[in-house]
Amino acid sequence: MARHKLSESKIKTLPVGIHGDGDGLFLRVRKGGSRQWFFIFRRGKDRTELGLGGYGQGTAPVDLSLAREKAEAVRKRLARGEELTSRKTFLDLMEDVIAVKAASFRNDKHKAQWRMTLDQYAKPLHMKPIADITRDDVVETLKPIWEKIPETADRTRMRIAAVIDHAKARGLFSGDNPADWRGGLKDLLPARQKLTRGHHAAVAYSDLPAVIAKLRQAAGTSARAVEFAALTAARSGEVRGATWAEIDLTEALWIVPAERMKAGREHEVPLSDRAVTILRAMQQQATGQVVFEGGKEGAAISDTAMVKALRAAGAGDATLHGLRSSFRDWCGDHTEFPREVAEAALAHVISDKTEAAYRRGTALQKRRDLMEMWGKYCETGK
Questions:
Q1: Would the pTM of this model clear 0.70, i.e. be above it?
Q2: By three-state DSSP, how is residue 374 classified?
């Protein structure tokens, strides 16, 4: 079979479809203009496709010359009878990650959610060698669900990123994580705050400063509790159950005990200046140990009261939990903080090694910087 059918100039004008360079080397051109190299070979009835990287994209673009070099290396390995399919696939690493995560999950539902999203929605990645997965692979995997079920789609993206982070830690993947939102996906998929949320309607973070301004104008504990929830990105149950014993105003730190956390782990929440101001004001009128008291003496404020305050502030049908989504979207779109810092701020469970690293003092300071920046954004929109 003839080789070297393509040229650099010809590649730039190729239509959508699959185009061969000869002897197993192909270039796939997708709608939108992305191009990816792959090598196809057969052994008996088995057909195998090996990804060789993206043409002119990402941090490690593969030009025509390099693609031919990679293809020739594959041909030589085949000629020597080497087994090429022994490379770790996404599915291999996915199973390892789920096993690690499952050990720390508190309920079967959470385990099932991880399994379902990766089994069902990340299926196009399953048989790809983990080292060869590109940003274009991730985009094509997410596109069918990104606008139909955006909340689930974004969770799928984060779980794909977790699998690739696991591979990086084991030396099986190099370069930037192609599933990171700020790493390039934000330019290839619609912004998440513009999509309709699933179970937890969220305030678009661009609208949140106006909502916060109305909350500040409102009197009453419920408005203060909602603003505090927004500033800390905490779950509403964690805010309603907060006690003064958990608060250290001198250190500007809120330590939520493990028994009150979804993941069953103690969570340190660095408090922004505005969050501390709210707490000092609440302390002046405190009658018991609960920070945000309800109508009955010593009782915590109700979830219903907080939702009403959020609605009155012009948040539409947004939920209290959606405030966490607003924070996460803002982190991904407008900050350079690592994904692990944002996930730690939300008290999401991450790998044990990373978790340990981000519990150290430097990580707490990074989260403190992040929450202070978030507090200023909520106040000024800048």
A1: no
A2: helix
Q: Look at the chain and count its residues.
A: 382
Place of tokens 């404020």: 301
d(CA 232, CA 308): 19
Q: Rounded to 5 degrees, what angle do the CA atoms 163, 168, 171 make?
A: 130
Which neighbouring-strand residues pair with 319? none
| Amino acid identity at 259 | E
Dihedral sign for Cα 361, 362, 363, 367, please.
Answer: positive
> In whole angstroms, how large is the CA radius of gyration of the chain?
25
CATH class assigned to 208-380: mainly alpha
81-127 pLDDT per residue, tens: 776 655 688 988 888 888 887 777 666 666 777 888 898 899 899 88
Fold for the domain defined by 90-190 = DNA polymerase; domain 1 (1.10.150)
**Alpha-carbon span 113 to 158, nearest angstrom:** 13
Class of the CATH domain delimited by 8-83: alpha beta
Cα(375)–Cα(278) distance, integer angstroms: 12
Domain locations along the chain: 8-83, 90-190, 208-380
Of 148, 322, 336, 304, which Cα lies nearest the Cα of 229? 322
Give, for 39, the enclosing helix (H) or strand (E).
strand 35-43
Helix (H, G, I), strand (E, B) or coil at 87: coil
How far out from the chain centre does Cα 285 lie? 39
Tokens 């309607």: give the residue: 201
3-state secondary structure of 8: helix
- Per-residue pLDDT reduced to its tens digit, 9-26: 999 899 988 999 999 999
Most confident of 16-30, 198-212, 338-352: 16-30
